[in-house]
Amino acid sequence: MDVYSNGNVKNLETASTTVQIDDSDFLRLLDRPRPISIERNRSFEEKSFNELSSTLSPLLFHRNVEKNSFHIFDLLDHTFSPVRSSLNTPRSNHCFEPHPVFTDAWEALRRSLVYFRGQPVGTIAAIDHSSDELNYDQVFVRDFVPSALAFLMNGEPEIVKNFILKTLRLQSWEKKVDQFKLGEGVMPASFKVFHDPVRNYETLIADFGESAIGRVAPVDSGFWWIILLRAYTKSTGDSSLAEMPECQRGMRLILSLCLSEGFDTYPTLLCADGCCMIDRRMGVYGYPIEIQALFFMALRCALLLLKQDDKGKEFVELISKRLHALSYHMQSYFWLDIKQLNDIYRYKTEEYSHTAVNKFNVMPDSLPDWVFDFMPSRGGYFIGNVSPAKMDFRWFCLGNCVAILSSLATPEQSSAIMDLIESRWQELVGEMPLKICYPAFESHEWRIVTGCDPKNTRWSYHNGGSWPVLIWLLTAACIKTGRPQIARRAIELAESRLLKDNWPEYYDGKLGRYIGKQARKFQTWSIAGYLVAKMMLDDPSHLGMISLEEDKQLKPLFKRSLSWSH
User: Fold this and answer.
1) Do 221 and 271 meet the contact criterion of CB atoms below 8 Å apart?
2) Which of 244, 258, 260 is nearest to 306 (CA)?
3) Is residue 90 within 8 Å of 103, Cβ to Cβ?
4) What is the pLDDT of residue 207?
5) Nearest-5° angle of CA 362, CA 283, CA 338?
6) pTM beyond 0.90
7) Strand partners, 69
8) Are the CB atoms for 471 and 428 separated by under 8 Å?
9) Residue 24's pLDDT is what?
10) What is the DSSP secondary-structure string of 94-162?
11) Which residue, 376, 380, 540, 511, is CA-closest to 434?
12) Across the 566 residues of the chain, what is the mean pLDDT of every consecutive 10-residue run?
């Protein structure tokens, strides 16, 4: 038994790590063993996970209930091998002893559960009693996503369903910042459970940005909510939640905010600083890659979830048109490889006509020196921002990984992003995965861009800090692109430190060597991010709930320069 952060007591027991088959199935499979065909000219590391999964099929698991022990029967050798098992560990497709860090992570994740009127509705941001709580005692929408995926992968969808419905209910509240009313579709950044001891009654208190640093509404919350609804539907096979009139209306309200007509000349979304994971002033105002990639993915998920009724059809048409324009814009103007970098370096300025090459009038002298050394001969990435006379050439991990998972990136671009990560491992991963962005602002540039923010000093927090939560996104991207060895290497780095460092929120330094100077310990999404990465690597079929295959209809009529053509 354990006492959770809001005073509720729940049992920590989880399902044991077994895969059981009955005797008849076992004997039938014995009679018809399936041979394994392994190509000798390719290592296991080089194979895609779909190929690797197929090689595990001849291993069957048999449980001795009385002794609570397990044996693997190899259909090729017709031999039994004993394997130890651990009680009270999460469900798994394999019955091997879990890594100690994995076991501790599950216990920590369950301690973070937040209950509302007896039902689990989310996970608290952090349980660090050594620091002031501030808003770390709340359930954040973006923070809960890796926790939700972990529970879905472990066959526990109820908490995810509760979270989806509770945040949907909060969306319907009237939202005001000072005297200004926010759009009806805005989802909360976070919420907390307030217990009235006098009336012995619980209520939810939501923050839509009115209490946040900078008073900025969370643009990403609505996108993550739609993505999570699709993950729940894909994982459980239950479409009834998404088909509820309330969920359909919630999606339409979010989409109305994003698809409304205005003065925009681009299909991308114009955003303020601090509207996403980077929730402080960090020069991401404009058209940040994180928001554009999440926007694209949410649109594709909504296309799969919306009903084809009178209300839904209108949005389906709007989404289809926007997806075509958005994919072309992002793949054409946000993509950077060595050929495109050289083209920008040679740009003419002050062009005026439809035939202009330098469409955004970017000044070649504004190219930062570091980008020439950072760009490998093979590889590329989506840059941080593109707007009139401005290109932010920084690398942002979340946006590029989501671009791969949503298929905003073409298969060739996805491979080029992974090539970049491998080529620039020291810069982007170092000693603790992963850099939220690269490089960091320093000196005069730091003072101008961040406003002398003491939390975002160079190589710290959002300014080039290393965030363990991002490992789940990297792992998903690695599996999708057939590069599991990259994810395995990153996970091993994380396992060497996270537990003994008490699951910090972020790490500081160029290599991510030091625990962040203001990092909270027992940060829930650091815990959940590791769990999701580990479970996806163990069972790559989990990738399906968070990945979308390429839509051939969204391919542009022509492509700009790409690294793989050189």
Assistant:
1) no
2) 244
3) no
4) 95
5) 45
6) no
7) 64
8) no
9) 38
10) S-SPPPHHHHHHHHHHHHTEEEETTEEEEE-SB--TTS--TTTTSEEHHHHHHHHHHHHHTT--HHHHH
11) 511
12) 44 34 35 34 36 39 35 37 39 63 97 97 92 87 98 98 98 88 94 94 94 88 98 98 98 96 94 94 96 98 95 94 97 97 93 86 94 97 95 98 98 98 98 98 96 97 98 98 98 97 98 97 98 98 96 62 43
Residue type, 480: K
SS3 198: coil
Cβ-count burial of 559 within 10 angstroms (0-12 exposed, 13-18 middle, 19+ buried)?
Answer: middle
Burial class (CB in 10 A: 0-12, 13-18, 19+), 433: buried
CB 513 within 8 A of CB 430: yes
Q: How many CB atoms lie within 10 A of CB 321?
A: 12
Please report which helix (H) or strand (E) contains residue 253, including its range: helix 245-259
- What is the reported pLDDT for 6? 45
pLDDT for 131 equals 75
Contact indicator for 147, 125 with CB cutoff of 8 Å? no
Q: What's the CA gap between 53 and 62, in Å, rounded?
A: 19
238's tokens: 């239950």
